[in-house]
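Please fill in the sequence for the structure shown.

STRUCTURE ENCODING:
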């Protein structure tokens, strides 16, 4: 049996896999080899595939439980397969699609819920002539390259992730947005998380964090800006320039990503997406998202005066 051709695309993340036709069911050996490469490279690219929705679903299902996208607006799902979310900038019934500006700031999918996604599988159906790239950052490296004093600070730190920080959410249909906010109260996650399969720790920070627990707004914003700049610096990033037919799967348990809006919005960009449900409940609802309490503020003032 031929084994797969696996070629790294970047130092921090990304590998291309050729020598496989994803329309056919994976053998156990292929599945194992792909999973191993996925854990190592975080983002896998399978060029020149042409999958039906059924084939994309069958492939994706080998890597986890598929999300039925209950949390998404019904108009954004494939009409015959709710396991497929359609990311599209086309108009639907005279209205902008509910996904026309999805993913425009750095994020880890569903970190604003108690169970962030395991990963996702995108299939490129239509693309603009230039631009519309997607970038992923390796959050293992982001954590491992911080200095010991900062790591010590982060070890027991928790952050509030908030759906209202999704960039461009205010431009979407107000009823859909109100429902999303109602269903997704702010959620607290540890800043350092452990990957359930590799056992390696990574830094769960992104641009959908509102604040850190127990810190003042100033402290939170400064620390967050520093950590986000660090985590998404070019040496930790793989940038994918899409080709039609690409299938890209990413491990959401140790990465964040951003979909760039750097393209002519009159040109269609359409991706079919299968989403893998998270395996572990790692977050809890933030009952009180206010900043540091009065007592700790007074102590802080006392400490500086
Ligand atoms: O459209 C893309 O490239 C990715 C959008 C995104 O953030 C996602 O599918 O999770
Ligand atoms: Fe995303």
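FILLED IN BY: designer on duty
SEQUENCE:
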């Amino acid at each position: 049996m031929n084994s797969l051709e696996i070629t790294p695309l970047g130092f921090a993340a990304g590998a291309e896999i050729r020598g496989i036709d994803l329309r056919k069911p994976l053998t156990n050996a292929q599945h194992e080899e792909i999973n191993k490469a996925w854990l190592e490279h975080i983002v896998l690219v399978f060029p020149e595939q042409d999958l039906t929705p059924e084939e994309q679903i069958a492939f994706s299902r080998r890597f986890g439980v598929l999300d039925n996208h209950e949390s998404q607006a019904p108009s954004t799902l494939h009409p015959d397969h709710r396991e497929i979310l359609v990311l599209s900038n086309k108009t639907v019934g005279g209205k902008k699609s509910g996904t026309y500006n999805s993913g425009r700031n750095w994020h880890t999918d569903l970190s604003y819920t108690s169970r962030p996604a395991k990963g996702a599988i995108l299939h490129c159906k239509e693309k603009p002539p230039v631009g519309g790239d997607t970038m992923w950052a390796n959050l293992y490296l982001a954590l491992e390259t911080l200095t010991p004093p900062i790591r010590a600070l982060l070890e027991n730190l928790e952050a509030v992730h908030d759906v209202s920080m999704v960039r461009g959410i205010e431009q979407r249909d107000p009823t859909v947005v109100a429902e999303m906010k109602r269903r997704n109260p702010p959620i607290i996650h540890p800043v350092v998380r452990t990957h359930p399969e590799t056992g390696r720790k990574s830094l769960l920070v992104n641009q959908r964090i509102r604040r850190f627990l127990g810190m003042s707004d100033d402290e939170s914003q400064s620390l967050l800006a520093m950590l986000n700049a660090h985590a998404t610096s070019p040496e930790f990033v793989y940038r994918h320039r899409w080709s039609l037919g690409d299938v890209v799967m990413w491990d959401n348990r140790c990465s964040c990503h951003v979909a760039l809006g750097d393209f002519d919005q009159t040109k269609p960009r359409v991706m079919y997406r299968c989403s893998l449900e998270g395996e572990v409940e790692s977050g809890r609802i933030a009952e009180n998202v206010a900043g540091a309490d009065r007592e700790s503020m007074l102590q802080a003032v006392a400490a500086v005066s």
